[in-house]
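User: Before I run my own analysis I want an independent prediction to cross-check against. Here's the chain; please return only the structure tokens and, at the end, one sentence I can use as a sanity check.
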Amino acid sequence: MRVILLLAGLLMLAANDATAADIKVLTAGAYKQVILALQPDFEKQTGNRLIVDNGTTGQLVKRIEGGEAFDVVVAPPKTIDELSQKGKVAAGSRVLLARVGIGVVVKEGAPKPDITTVEAFKKALLSAKSVAYIDPASGGSSGIYLAGLFEKLGIANDLKPKAKLINGGYVAEHIAKGEAEIGIHQISEIVPVRGVILVGPLPDQIQNYTVYAAGLGANAQAKDAAAALIKTLSGPAAAPILKSRGMAPAS
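Assistant: Structure tokens:
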């Protein structure tokens, strides 16, 4: 009997190994932390393995249009729709996941500037010796928005000499290293970084929320497994993870 049970167990393990899949996920940087937090339970429950890679939205688009293979992509809804129109994302597969606002960060122990009003925010930036944010040219959504905001506020020319433009990654890491006095980035990309303090979100009048959605690769090698991942990312298990990362459900 023991031999029979052992053989049955080995057969089950072999079957699980045969059906397990590697799921390649390309995600915009702000959502990466959510996927990484959900990864252990998802892999344990499904037997599938996630291969997570990130970049700015612009960088991901270039990679996908260049022919890079993927199973799931997480990016703003407009980007998912455009990739779908180009045949890179399966039609009708887009699912809204979350939204996140922009915040201000300083190094731990540094004075926290007043950013409670638009005028206070302007004064804080103009008073700072250096200001770090994502380089708009890299295709990062926060950097593109901030470039336009600075123009609208009439401080773009004043900030140019002291701007530290970051080509992807966490702006807050550069603040922690002392490379800039103030950083501005999506809140979910500030919260995970050690050695910094989130001052707070931008004032409501100038806040900008980036919405993220998931899309299934048109040529995904593991379509069923990838679809299961998207369901997990948009399901109830994701809600507490989103909150802890400074994000909120999209709807």
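Sanity check: The radius of gyration is 21 Å.
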